[in-house]
From TrEMBL:
Residues 117-160 are annotated as: Disordered. One of its GO terms (molecular function) is oxidoreductase activity. This is Ecto-NOX disulfide-thiol exchanger 1/2 domain-containing protein. GO terms for cellular component: external side of plasma membrane. PANTHER family: ECTO-NOX DISULFIDE-THIOL EXCHANGER (PTHR16001), ECTO-NOX DISULFIDE-THIOL EXCHANGER 2 (PTHR16001:SF7).
Amino acid sequence: MCDSAGVSQAEALKEENDSLRCQLDAYRNEVELLKQEQGKNQPMISEEDNTRAQQLSFLQQALQGMQKQLFKMREELKEREAELEKSVEDKQQLNNQVLNLKEGLLNLQNTDIVQLEKSQQDDRGGEENANQTSEATVSTVVSCSQEKEGPQEKNPLSPVNSEREALLVGIIATFLHVHPFGASIEYICSYLQRLDTKINTSEVEALLSRLPCTFRQELSGVGASLEKRWSFCGFQGIKST
């Protein structure tokens, strides 16, 4: 809209410039005719000569005014053309900025899609690792529940007394699997109590103690900072059973 208005103003200035030029040529022609007529007449000064002299002076002044106005309009025309050219450049720059923004938005969307797909793959990988850990735990518990010597027909008692304890074993094994340096019994119980507030420390410690092939207790620290930590050893325990 601004570009069309600038073009219209520039065209109007050009037309006015042409009109003034034509008027200026007409004034010049009239001045020349007056000069020629004055030269042909007698050098006697008459009232008619005074009138013509006044007309000539008036025409010269008008001519000078027209020249100044013409010069001013030429300057305005140059300014309008410069503004119009700058407006075209600004419009082109704005179009380029819009294109850059569109490309940046498209790249950002593509990046988000790639990150989302990668996150979903990582989640699937984490679920597979947790499933593998749970399977290994169950296998270890079953192996440790059997005697190493003697016939299997004796069917010794299992160290896991109920389905609830079996669930606790799986959850603790998964928890310790992501804590390779082990965790204290208090830390383990605080995690389990988020799932069941009835869980107590002695119950969990007794359960872990009955599964030496799955969980191992180690001492960490020195002196006053000595701490007992439980760690998951099911991957090593399944080889020794």
